[in-house]
Amino acid sequence: MFTDGRPGTFAFYNVLNMANSGHYKNIVPAPVAAHTHRWDWNAYADADARCQRAMELALRLKEEDVYRVTSVYTSLCLNLVSELQYLILTRLEKVQPYLESLSGKVAEGHDCMNCSGKCAISHGSMVREIADSHYHTTEVFNRLNKIAIPLYSDETALDSYKLLRREMEDLYLLIHRLFFREEAELIPQILEKQKKIHASD
Asked: Which pTM value belongs to this model?
């Protein structure tokens, strides 16, 4: 899954590093044509459904594994899925209203440099939170893979374990495709709109 010894090889590591070092304000947004379309908030629906499926399978395995052979793996799965569900909720209840607010400010010609008392919104933290969630989630997926019992092992006789392993792998792929889209589309949209209104922390 990873080829260079790190917990992930996705370019959002660069996003995280630049966010933490304050370099985002110097970024020149990609050409407008690259992200003129609105971000598809329905993209999180599939991830939420997958999380629910994984949660059900993990709870089933927890009940069936009377000898607790897979208990550590199952517990981490449950924790990870709960975190992902919270992440999805945060995107919809925090990031979505923020992006809509930015769009409104751009439309009305708002300029944060002329705000009386300055804007109360911490603009830079929004991008950092998204990048941080990418990094943290990848770290947890990496730990999950390290503790997983190989499917060919005699200890993995339970069908429910095999189903959960496959579901978590599918969830991994879906989440990281979503993260890549956030990196390629959502974050650039936020940065572009922030630049237009001269937003900063």
From this structure: 0.78
